[in-house]
Amino acid sequence: MTTVRQRRVGKGTEAAEDQPLEEKNVKPDEKILSDHTGGKLWNILSITVGGIVAISLGLLTSVYVATLHENDLWFSNIKEVEREISFRTECGLYYSYYKQMIQAASIQKGLHGLVYDNKTESVRTINILERMNVYQEVFLSILYRILPIQRYLEPVYFYIYTLFGLQAVYVIALYVTSWLLSGTWLSGLLAACWYITNRIDTTRVEFTIPLRENWALPFFAVQIAAITYLLRTHLQPVQERLTLIAVFIATFLFSLTWQFNQFMMLIQALALFILDCFDMLPTAKVMWLYIIQISGLLLVCVLQFFNSMILGSLLISFNTSVLIARTIQKNLKKGSLLNRLGKLIFHVLLVLCFTLLINKFIKKILNLESDEHIFKFLKAKFGFGATRDFDANLYLCEEAFGLLPLNTFSRLSATLLFYVYIFVLFLMTVAAIIVAFRNLSGSNQVQFMEKMEECTITLKPDAAYNLLHTVLFGCLALSTMRMKYLWTSHMCVFASFGLCSTEVWKLILKCIHLYTSQRTRVIKYSIPIIILLYVSYKFWPGIMDELSELREFYDPDTVELMNWIKSNTPNTAVFAGSMQLLAGVKLCTGRTLTNHPHYEDKNLRERTKQIYQIYAKRSPEDVYRILRSFGTDYVILEDSICYERRHSRGCRLRDLLDIANGHIMDGLGENEPDLKPALYPRFCEEIKKTLPSYTIHFTRVFQNKTFHVYKLAKHK
């Protein structure tokens, strides 16, 4: 206020200086009060409009993906069995528990059936709530039962509409994060538009509805928005406490709904750790975030009946190690540059050692081996030695777990998203490096930093966190295609924030000596609007064509198989086959399975490898003995697996089995020198010749163009 008065006096006439003191003071105060009131009203109006736009875009996204799903399958017109078959692979398995809870005589009996389940894995009773993240199906089924909507809405629609509704939450969270970072809701609008126009690379909810990530990612986006707000400066204590509660709730829900939560949050914890080491985040808030991650995961562990895989997670070991190390090293951020670098190196080594020791200790006590396949996969993927391990190779040969395809970048570039993202990422990374160096050395001690003063910006904690978040999840996406949805959605947020950020444009204009506040304001609003107009003009017709394109679900062979199973086999029959198909068998028919696609259990992985000997070069006696050991009554053979051509040689399922069994692979090509010819022909091919050695154990009871079902003889 003092500065304003001085400027007004300095520009006044001599007559103005002779006016009474009271008069000189009143007019500026009235002006300031008027400006303050006007600014407050403008802020309220801006927040209201921005909020309405956010909610509208979220709802439009939900309607958009729901319409695409309907148009692609004609979901409202197909039979129930066709609807269920459309939930492919593990999606069908998860949905089957929702269906089971809906059809149970009571909620209590439904829960009892999940806790003491003997139909998902034959000759075993397992606790589904412990093994799988299906609390969302339980909650939704209970909600459907108690709400008076059964007459108006089928259970399947209640389920899929909930998932499509979560897409609204997802888009709103992305919108809010971008808005918080940039200070303008125009940034959120651009982020949401990019998310929608890049739908192929930002979500797959319309064709994999029950997938765990479609439940979890909206909560993860809410958590990121809450962390972004938490890291803002000058928060009131009440605001900080409420935000911490929001972070905890979002973290808990994210952890509860996805089995890979611990790995995603480990990356998040690494981002917090790195930024805290370089003094780019307030330490107290970082410590709270570590505690929230641990407590959220432990609460999920309790709900999942003390799931050992959670207790043995690297996240709990890492966060605990950081908290211990920070207690030991209290003066980590004091001293000269070399002194601090020495302390940081020691701190990193201390945390790493503690993490490995704690994790190994927990796994030793719990005898934990459930996640060993993941580490085998990672070891082989990043070139730390070839492997013949069947489980690791099964992941390595799947396209979803391969490197991110290059055509992804061409699609993202078509909407200008990737170009803007790289531009913003480069500028923010340079700024982050300078700020980190300044924090370590102290700006008063380094003349170089003083020379760079005019061209640098102070990187805010919330921007710093989102920068490292996008870098680390970008590395994850580049290495594993399935994880790209964690990166591309945040890419929309980060690119739109940079384009609408005053700090970014201020940095650029200062470096080229063209900075004025008015010019910055014009650029930060005009360029996003131009890009919005371009994206709308280029992609709106395509979206309209997409919405008008009508298709229909068509899979008569699978429908025929499911109908035959329901009509011609007893309810207690046990079926063996591929993991993907058996998930559909459980959903559509309710029959007992030998194996299934939820692969996070060592015993199940061993069981699956044994069941898959039906596609290996094994004798009929061996295959029969293996299948009967799991109580199998019927085995389903698929031509698409037996004569697979989708994968190249060495990655076909039959090749993986041959390698694991020490046999030479089929077809032209090299084999490892220690592989030997098999003593028997391939079972899935030879059984179709109806030779006596096979018919004594197996009788074909169903056949169509895709599937062959054999009934196992029950020898005494």
UniProtKB/TrEMBL annotation:
Subcellular location(s) of the protein: Membrane
Predominant subcellular localization, coarse grouping: membrane
Chain ranges passing through the membrane: 41-66, 156-173, 216-235, 241-258, 297-324, 344-362, 416-441, 487-509, 521-540
Gene Ontology CC terms: nuclear inner membrane
Membrane topology note: Multi-pass membrane protein
Keywords: Glycosyltransferase, Membrane, Transferase, Transmembrane, Transmembrane helix
One MF annotation (Gene Ontology) recorded for this entry: mannosyltransferase activity
Highest taxon in the source lineage: Eukaryota
Annotated family: Belongs to the dpy-19 family.
Stated name of the protein: D19L3 mannosyltransferase
Protein's organism: Aramus guarauna
